[in-house]
Write a sequence for this structure.
């Protein structure tokens, strides 16, 4: 009996020591799970997350799905972090439905989850940190209406089925374009995950709609890979600069296109801020400070005119170490 | 009688299917789909898959499989972009890229022929390893590189060179297809490939140096995947480590539609090329008609199964 009590006591002591070690703010471990790791967008998110991690004195574990945009792989990553017992999970879900179960499982095990970049159904997560994508899509739609003077035919090259963030952008764009009196000639074609698939889809789309002879006056693409694929298709078919083209996100080649007048505008989110605020929100939540249910990180329309302003330049070139 | 004999040539079926599907879309969209510009676009879009299909035909006919094609294409595009970025000449970059893929192919071959491991397993492994290598080499992002004129391979022709009919990349692909069709049909090496695929033991007893042929086949498939990777770079003008994900499945589908059998010994290079073209026509046609992606995916799947089914019927008839 005594022996047993001694054993229990020693376990309690070890546990207490363990807690002390784990309870210090320096040992907070936050897993940050992006949708992929190769898009330049995610590099900036990563930099933002690291900065917030340093400021809030938490450890960041950055781990994306092994295969780009692979839903199953992302679910696996969430589950393995849950099993490891990290302090909190910051997740950009590849699907607004499929990750609900894994997130609930994590929250049930007292691991809070902050969703960022792309929305998740359900109420289990502590906060949602992202661009208001529908509003960002409307920015592009309104700009298209302005560029075309309120009449003309537009096409949307969608990104991928089941991706909530891009879907909201597409819907926001379509909503504003319809309201502004534009005719939508195509809105059911998807560019897919890679630039290559987006390029060949763009080429088919443009010639199917007779873009060369005025069948399309404006196009919109909702992320970096579809915008780049469409830009390449316009360049190859000699249509670049001849029709109005608005894209989303930025990269060197896209900014080149903007400078040459082949792109009329890019709606740019603030990936650095997204990563930064997501980790900050999680750290605050873990320290029992109150957090907003919805944190909007904003989006800006970049055009040839405002490209060189300092505000846009920091947005485009976030301080990545 | 003549017609029946013609139908028994393995590549006639895929060709007829290709024509039928093309005509179908022309009828559905006569004003846009039938334009020559569209034909040229579809030819350009088939090049990456087409060149890889040539290599896969060799592999499948000799009774193997190569799942690492897509990853080799991505790796090549990254190597090419990296070298161009480092200021090397386009020719050096292309040669190095193709060679890198060739070495990977030879490695596949060595593991399969010398270490006696199953092709499916070995190439499943290299598929993952090469994809990882491509991502690592590219620092996990797209590499922006000066195209160095390589983009002209697959860009639509400027009016001054309209006499070429299709861009140089398409001609290169056609030349490669003809060369390997000849090798398969008319050389000893080609007959050895068929012999090993039909019955490896018999081939060995007849004095075919099975291991050597196998290594050469995988090395050639690697080199061709490399050429395909150069084409992919020329198309995108960036080195993209995530490109060509799942390409191996399109390529295998093309070979199978073209009459190839996964148990080896059968397959036609021309048929496989027609198979690759068929898939491009379906993809492009679906966009012209405005079909959503899911319908297009069902269509592609149905075509693969119907094509193989018809081919089995043909073989049964021939056997009788």
């Amino acid at each position: 009996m005594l022996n047993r009590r001694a054993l229990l006591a020693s376990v309690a002591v070890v546990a207490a020591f363990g807690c002390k070690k784990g309870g210090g703010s320096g040992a907070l471990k936050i897993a940050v799970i992006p949708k992929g790791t190769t898009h330049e967008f995610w590099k900036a998110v990563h930099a933002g997350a690291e900065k917030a991690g340093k400021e809030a004195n938490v450890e960041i574990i950055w781990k994306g799905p092994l295969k780009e945009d692979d839903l199953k792989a992302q679910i696996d990553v969430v589950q393995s972090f849950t099993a490891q017992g990290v302090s909190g999970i910051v997740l950009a879900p590849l699907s607004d439905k499929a990750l609900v179960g894994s997130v609930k499982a994590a929250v049930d095990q007292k691991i809070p989850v902050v969703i960022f970049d792309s929305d998740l159904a359900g109420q289990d997560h502590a906060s949602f940190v992202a661009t208001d994508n529908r509003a960002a899509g409307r920015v592009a739609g309104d700009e298209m209406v302005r560029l075309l003077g309120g009449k003309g035919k537009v096409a949307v090259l969608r990104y991928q089925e089941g991706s909530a963030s891009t879907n909201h952008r597409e819907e926001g764009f379509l909503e504003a374009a319809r309201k502004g009196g534009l005719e939508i000639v195509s809105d059911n074609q998807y560019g897919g995950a890679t630039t290559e698939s987006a390029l060949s889809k763009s080429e088919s789309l443009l010639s199917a709609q007779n873009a060369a002879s005025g069948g399309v006056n404006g196009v919109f693409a909702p992320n970096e890979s579809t915008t780049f694929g469409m830009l390449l298709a316009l360049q190859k078919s000699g249509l670049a600069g001849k029709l109005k083209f608005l894209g989303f996100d930025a990269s060197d080649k896209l900014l080149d296109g903007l400078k040459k007048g082949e792109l009329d505008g890019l709606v740019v989110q603030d990936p650095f801020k997204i990563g930064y605020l997501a980790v900050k929100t999680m750290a605050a939540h873990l320290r029992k400070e109150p957090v907003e249910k919805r944190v909007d990180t904003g989006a800006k329309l970049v055009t040839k005119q405002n490209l060189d302003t300092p505000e846009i330049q920091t947005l485009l070139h976030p301080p990545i170490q | 009688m003549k017609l029946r004999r013609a139908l028994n040539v393995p590549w006639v079926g895929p060709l007829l299917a290709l024509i039928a599907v093309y005509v179908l879309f022309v009828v559905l969209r006569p004003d846009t789909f039938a334009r020559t510009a569209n034909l040229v676009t579809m030819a350009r879009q088939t090049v990456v898959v087409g060149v890889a299909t040539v290599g896969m035909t060799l592999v499948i006919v000799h009774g193997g499989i190569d799942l690492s094609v897509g990853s080799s294409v991505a790796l090549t595009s990254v190597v090419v972009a990296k070298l161009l970025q480092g200021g090397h000449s386009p020719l050096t970059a292309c040669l190095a890229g193709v060679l890198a893929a060739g070495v990977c192919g030879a490695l596949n071959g060595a593991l399969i022929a010398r270490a006696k491991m199953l092709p499916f397993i070995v190439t499943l492994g290299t598929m993952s390893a090469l994809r990882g290598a491509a991502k690592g080499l590219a620092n996990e992002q797209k590499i922006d590189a000066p195209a160095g004129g390589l983009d002209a391979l697959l860009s639509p022709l400027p009016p001054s060179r309209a006499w070429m009919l299709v861009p140089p990349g398409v001609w290169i692909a056609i030349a490669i297809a003809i060369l390997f069709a000849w090798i398969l049909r008319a050389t000893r090496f080609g007959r050895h490939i068929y012999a090993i695929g039909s019955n490896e033991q018999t081939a060995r007893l007849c004095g075919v140096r099975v291991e050597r042929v196998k290594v050469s086949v995988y090395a050639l498939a690697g080199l061709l995947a490399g050429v395909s990777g150069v084409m992919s770079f020329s198309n995108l003008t960036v080195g993209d480590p995530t490109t060509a994900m799942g390409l191996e499945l399109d390529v295998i589908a093309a070979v199978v539609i073209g009459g190839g059998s996964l148990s080896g010994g059968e397959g036609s290079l021309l048929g496989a090329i027609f198979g690759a073209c068929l898939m491009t026509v379906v993809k492009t046609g679906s966009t012209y008609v405005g079909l959503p992606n899911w319908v297009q995916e069902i269509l592609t799947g149905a075509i693969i199964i119907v094509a193989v089914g018809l081919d089995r019927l043909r073989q049964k008839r021939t056997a009788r």
Remarks:
- The longest strand of chain A covers residues 183-190.
- Chain A touches chain B through 34 residues (CB under 8 Å).
- Residues 65 and 73 of chain A are 5 Å apart (CA to CA).
